[in-house]
From TrEMBL:
InterPro entries in UniProt: Sig_transdc_resp-reg_C-effctor (IPR016032), Tscrpt_reg_LuxR_C (IPR000792), WH-like_DNA-bd_sf (IPR036388)
Keywords: DNA-binding, Transcription, Transcription regulation
Keyword Transcription regulation: yes
Domain HTH luxR-type: 31-96
CDD domains reported for this sequence: LuxR_C_like
Keyword Transcription: yes
A Pfam family recorded for this sequence: GerE
Superkingdom in the source lineage: Bacteria
Membrane-crossing segments per the record: none
The name this protein goes by in its record: Response regulator transcription factor
Length: 98
């Protein structure tokens, strides 16, 4: 169950937290082997990577420097524990993030 334990579910229910919101938040943070959080910009970069865009193309589309895009890519791989872009995109698709 997306890495959200029963204790967290019980706490959310007890505290009156919208359970759907709690589960959706957990789904957004979960990626295959662990919990992570990506910024909105990082998610944009992943979507463009999944479309096959190069760092230069991503930089042009998001009005960023190529260096910034490369830093985003490096940080995304580090956060998710993926070794390469293909593995990252595959896990994002499996986790229904893309």
């Amino acid at each position: 169950m997306l890495g959200l334990g029963w204790g967290a579910v019980a706490t959310a229910a007890r505290d009156g937290v919208d359970l759907h919101f709690a589960l959706e938040s957990a789904r957004k943070r979960y990626l295959g082997t662990g919990v992570y959080q990506m910024s909105d910009r990082e998610r944009q970069v992943v979507r463009l990577m999944a479309e096959g865009a190069t760092s230069e193309e991503i930089a042009d589309r998001l009005y960023l420097s190529v260096h910034t895009v490369k830093n985003h890519r490096k940080n995304i791989l580090r956060k998710t524990g993926c070794r390469n872009s293909g593995q990252l995109v595959s896990r994002c698709i499996a986790a229904k993030i893309l």
